[in-house]
Amino acid sequence: MTEKTQVHPPASEALKPGDSYVQSFARGLSVIRAFSAEAPRQTLSEVAKRCELTRAGARRILLTLETLGYVACDGRQFSLTPKILDLGFAYLSAQPLWQFAEPVMQALASELGESVSAAVLEGSDIVYVLRMPNRKIMSVNLGVGSRLPAWCTSMGRVLLADLDAEALTAQLAQLDAQRLPRHTMRTVASTAELSQRIAQVREQGWCLVNQELEEGLVSLAAPIKDRGGRTLAALNIGAQVNRTPPEAMLETCLPKLLDAARQISRLVQIKG
Amino acid sequence: MTEKTQVHPPASEALKPGDSYVQSFARGLSVIRAFSAEAPRQTLSEVAKRCELTRAGARRILLTLETLGYVACDGRQFSLTPKILDLGFAYLSAQPLWQFAEPVMQALASELGESVSAAVLEGSDIVYVLRMPNRKIMSVNLGVGSRLPAWCTSMGRVLLADLDAEALTAQLAQLDAQRLPRHTMRTVASTAELSQRIAQVREQGWCLVNQELEEGLVSLAAPIKDRGGRTLAALNIGAQVNRTPPEAMLETCLPKLLDAARQISRLVQIKG
């Protein structure tokens, strides 16, 4: 497609799968995502191989990213620049929700001395969007943008509980097909049992997960809701079981968590 | 350019400014950045207008983003999805530095009860890459990815102090041309004075900024250095002047900050 056809598009605006716009943009984004902790710096050939692109194709994308300031090159190796953060930041700043949530979460984390996080559902994963770390409960990799499977996390179950019956059934069927991994002795053993627990979460309006994902990790989650009562995100407190056993979570943390979730929901409903 | 020529590129690999790859990719990224707190949800026409694209061009990009899962559409309005965070996360996870820095910063924040941040230089701005918030000193907008002008922040001066003479001169000339805004009574008044302070930072290996950016905000920064002694990032403690005056910052916080910065530098130098 030439520059000219981009400016003067055909009468039909339908998106064709082979549209070069789709291709080049999708490839560009895949190059950004090719950089990771395992491969923070890569040569042109490495990027091409990792993204299944020709050298020429990879080179065009890398030079484009360099021109735009998203990639730096030290001669032979390419790496991402901090400007890349602007793209994720666009998301965060685009959602008034997170601006309302942050001070409330900060106050909660400092009052309880526990880590407080918020996440949304993305397919069958939860994605961390905000996180107030406290002490050293969570691993380094649970920063903003990191993912965990929804089914065995407290935030995930809160989010799954708000799915339409059809969407939830599809997720459970998918889990059934892959068989539930047993992360600990306590991990829920079947999708039938999981389904019951999700129904209970829907009923009671919060979720406690006791060491189903990792030994020693207890977590409690509640939904942040929009005006129509749909769940926008989940709010969570994570704690170490030896310091804060499940009973203490329910007694001390639950009322405060529900309160914080209600506070954020109200702000979103009024001003969002 | 057709799909075919992308797979079989011309012999010359040179990037031409009019290359459609550059254009479509750059436009795609500009659409992502068009979403903000002021415009979290936008119609096709609004996106087109904001990005100076034709409706057809904007539509193609939005549909591409939707196909890739980065954008959702509720019928009429488009918004970013949390998958967008993967792009910024690619940067964070691509830098071993941040994985080493996080636990050290967390320990420092919890020991001092002050907020601890890390930033890198991006042109004349600092960009926040990690942040351990504590209490309510920092405004909501100082999250990961947010920017501040380097010249009037402690992290900025630490980062500027490591620039080559030529690059620093260029930055100062640019500041001279735009005249330094006086954020508070204490903001440095001239680039000559700024240049002296930066030289002092280079000499002493840390920087204290006392309410030059905002009344009441005192901050202290130190460099994280690579094997060759070059500054990779700056580490910072931000405090409220009434609670932690500059003298207390120097007495209590400075040794701990320098220690944390050295610890992270050593980890990066050994394992990074």
UniProtKB/TrEMBL annotation, chains A, B:
InterPro entries xrefs: GAF-like_dom_sf, HTH_MetabolicPath_Reg, PcaR_PcaU, Tscrpt_reg_IclR_C, Tscrpt_reg_IclR_N, WH-like_DNA-bd_sf, WH_DNA-bd_sf
Pfam families: HTH_IclR, IclR_C
Residue intervals of the IclR-ED domain: 83-270
Keyword tags: DNA-binding, Transcription, Transcription regulation
Any one GO biological process: negative regulation of DNA-templated transcription
Keyword Ribosomal protein carried by entry: no
Name of the protein described by the UniProt record: IclR family pca regulon transcriptional regulator
Organism field: Roseateles oligotrophus
